[in-house]
Write a structure and sequence with these properties.
- The chain is α+β, with helices and mostly antiparallel strands.
- The protein has a domain at 54-160: Beta Polymerase, domain 2, CATH 3.30.460.
- Helix content is 32%, strand content 17%.
- A five-stranded mixed sheet has the order 1-2-5-4-3.
- β4 and β5 (137-142) form a beta hairpin.
- α2 (54-68) runs antiparallel to α3 (97-113).
- The longest helix has 17 residues, at 97-113.
- The chain is elongated, with a radius of gyration of 34 Å.
- The termini are far apart.
Length: 161
């Protein structure tokens, strides 16, 4: 088909000069340059030793709260591998009902602020023994007489191994 007279010939394309490579530079994509450069050195370590786990942080929060409330004889037992219902157990003594109830309330508030969703408390209304279930850690708050009666340290202690 002949070209119509109304149609004109396209203008010639402009030629753009390619920039010259600087000395020592290699052409290619960024990926190819990265591969050609080889592996990088690992970043320097900032901390020595293992990072504290979420369980360790939760345990330190619990022990700190009990210590702030003047709990006596705070003992932490590691039950990993010994028990299916928890990994750690914290046992502490309060002198009177009011102190034990206050320790349980303060600990529950701090656990909720730390993001522990389901904190269950048993015996908080004036008993000799208050149990707080914080998921992987169980907290027992006793009066001194009840603590010696039940003897949880003997039951779950090192002799269990």
């Amino acid at each position: 088909m002949p070209a119509s007279p109304a149609r004109h010939k396209p203008a010639p394309r402009k030629r753009v000069a390619k920039p010259a490579l600087a000395a020592g530079k290699t052409p290619g994509t960024l990926r190819k340059k990265t591969i050609a450069a080889g592996p990088q050195a690992p970043p320097p370590e900032r901390r020595k030793g293992p990072l504290p786990s979420a369980l360790d942080k939760l345990q330190s929060l619990i022990v700190g709260s009990l210590d702030d409330d003047k709990a006596a004889d705070i003992v932490t037992l590691d039950l990993a591998g010994k028990s299916t219902f928890c990994d750690r157990m914290v046992i502490a003594t309060g002198l009177v009902d009011r102190q034990i109830t206050a320790m349980a309330e303060h600990l529950t508030e701090k656990l909720h602020k730390a993001g522990v969703k389901r904190v269950q408390v048993e015996g908080a209304n004036g008993a000799d023994w208050v149990l707080i279930d914080a998921g992987d850690i169980i907290v027992h708050l006793f009066k001194p007489e009840a603590r010696t009666t039940y003897g949880l340290e003997k039951m779950w202690g090192a002799e269990l191994d």
